[in-house]
Amino acid sequence: MTNVMKDYFLNLDAAAKDPERKVAWCTSVGPAEILRAMGFEVYFPENHGAMLGATRVSSDTIPVANANGYSPEICSYLTSDVGAYMKGITPLTKAFGITEVPRPDILVYNTNQCKDVMHWFEYYAKEFDTPIFGIHPPTNIPDIRQQYIDDVTRQFEELITFLEPIIGHPLDPEKLKQTVALSLEATTLWSEVLDMAKVRPSPLTFFDGTIYMGPIVVLRGTQIAVDYYKNLLAELKQKVAENHAAVKKENKRIYWDGMPVWGRLRSLSNIFDENDACVVASTYCNSWVFSDFDPEDPLASMARAYIKIFINRNDGFKENYIADMVRDFHIDGVVFMAARTCPNNSNAHYNLPRKLKERGIPTIIIDGDLCDLRCFSDEQSTTLIEAFLETI
Ligand code: SF4
User: Fold this and answer.
1) Are strands 363-368 and 333-339 parallel, antiparallel or unpaired?
2) Which residues line ligand 1 (CB under 6 A)?
3) Rounded Cα gap, residues 16 and 118, in angstroms
4) CA-closest candidate to residue 211, choices 235, 232, 196, 183
5) How many Å apart are CA 189 and CA 337, to the nearest integer?
């Protein structure tokens, strides 16, 4: 894993310094396949936000963005990342000796997840005087309609036309098919990796998943991601064969909804472990399962896959989705993490926990955040989680 991510960032760094190569910035559920198929190296600022959170560097960078006019109430990936840029620091320096994030030749965002990404990318477009393109799909949809797919397919076609003069050649349709095929293979393997947690005791936890998910976010459409997940799956199967439990005395199985608290992965993991509870499934890790990709119909299938994501759906869909996960993964209770700065990925605000309770599923809400640890109380969360685990 370390080598996969190291090579990915060193390659990006080299591309940014090479006038012959082009770097595209893309949102985490943006059309990375189109960018890769056209020959761009692809960088994901949200991944950088997560690194800033996990290393807790964001505690120093969020206030810088706040002091420069970005509210503490908005996405703390955005404020962590913009603050880091303003401060001139990146965790890539300590991790891989890279002095700055790769400068973009093009910025491409997709508002399928939220509109914060638009403000975020627009900041950099102005800062670097770089072209920018936004995909604006229908949002918060109860079901998938053909006109939505047609709409987003047309937007992808427009994007390709926009990108061709920047990269200097037309899109090769065969290359796009191959890239989508690689994405499909990687995402299928990733889904199989996550499904290994259906086994009792589970060989992995949600906290492991937040680390294992790196390649499916940043290396979709590459052979590297496929190979990584083949290895990981084989390793997990071996662990199951050896009866290796991620939580030694697993006797409660938990579902995690919402974002990870990146700066508290270890301590939260320890709390569950000490209470013999394994967090076996999550909305977050499953957000990069795109079973609709079809190499024979690349653009329309990408449109469908990227519209369909959990975050872009209504509460009726979300309720049924979580209830199905509870059934399939033999879950005893659901933890909702209400992220202060990301209402888009927090599902506790519109009565969803209570609706699940009415279906016989125990739920709890903990307040926190993905990166801003000022919004997270260790004491309160520990007390709440321990009391919840005791009652179930
Ligand atoms: S979905 Fe939430 S965490 Fe992700 S970019 Fe949007 S506001 Fe930030």
Assistant:
1) parallel
2) 46, 75, 77, 113-114, 116-117, 342, 344-345, 370
3) 23
4) 232
5) 27
Cα(262)–Cα(255) distance, rounded to whole angstroms?
17
SS3 call for 110: strand
Give the pLDDT confidence score for residue 48 in this predicted structure: 98
pLDDT 10s digits, 110-123? 999 999 999 999 99
pLDDT per position as a tens digit, 71-97: 999 999 999 999 999 999 999 999 999
What is the pLDDT of the chain when averaged over all its residues? 97
As a dihedral over the C-alpha atoms of residue 295, residue 14, residue 43, residue 104, rounded to 10 degrees, the angle is: -110
Read off the tokens for 259.
């974002």
Residue with tokens 């404020």: 79
Q: What distance lies between CA 380 and its chain's CA centroid?
A: 26
- pLDDT, one tens digit per residue, over 231-289 is 999 999 999 999 999 999 999 999 999 999 999 999 999 999 999 999 999 999 999 99
Q: What is the dihedral of CA 143, 179, 151, 134, to 10 degrees?
A: 110
Give the residues across from 42 on adjacent strands: 24
**Whether residue 19 has a cis bond before it, omega within 30° of 0:** no
CA distance 247 to 279: 9
Closest by alpha carbon to 322, among 292, 360, 366? Answer: 360
Percent of the chain clearing pLDDT 70 (strictly above):
100
End-to-end, the C-alpha distance of the chain in Å comes to: 35
Amino acid found at 42: V
Q: What residue segments make up the domains of the chain, in order of their start? A: 2-158
Whether the Cβ atoms of residue 371 and residue 80 lie closer than 8 Å to each other: yes
Look at ligand 1, atom 6, and give the residue with the nearest C-alpha. 114
Distance 252 CA to ligand 1 centre (A): 30
**Each residue's pLDDT tens digit, 152-167:** 999 999 999 999 999 9
Integer CA distances (angstroms), 175 to 55, 279, 298, in order: 37, 39, 10
**Of 9, 38, 39, 41, the residue nearest 24 (C-alpha):** 41
Q: How far is the CA of 77 from the centre of ligand 1 (A)?
A: 7
The answer regarding whether domain 2-158 maps to CATH 3.40.50.11890 reads: yes
